[in-house]
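lol ok so funny story. i was supposed to be doing the assay writeup but got distracted and ended up predicting the structure for this chain instead. priorities right. anyway since i did it might as well share w the group, maybe its usefull for someone
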Amino acid sequence: MLIYCCLDPQDPYAEREVQVTFEWTVGGPRLIAAVDQHDDDILPDLVEVQRDDLRREIVDAHRLPTARLREALSVTPAGR
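and the output, tada:
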């Protein structure tokens, strides 16, 4: 299982984070827990849209290095 810090979907000001425990499956990350600053698992309290936000944040964070590498490889050196 992996842990990633995401923005707390219950925080309207996006100032707090939750530690999301997940595992990768064929369809993407499967959320196991989302622990807030009070060590409470808030995952059962989240609606599906909020869970989707966590999944999207995890996928985007893990996709970023690949996107940067692809961008770096597509740049041609000056003078060619």
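The chain has one domain: 2-74. The chain has a mean pLDDT of 86.
back to the writeup now i swear
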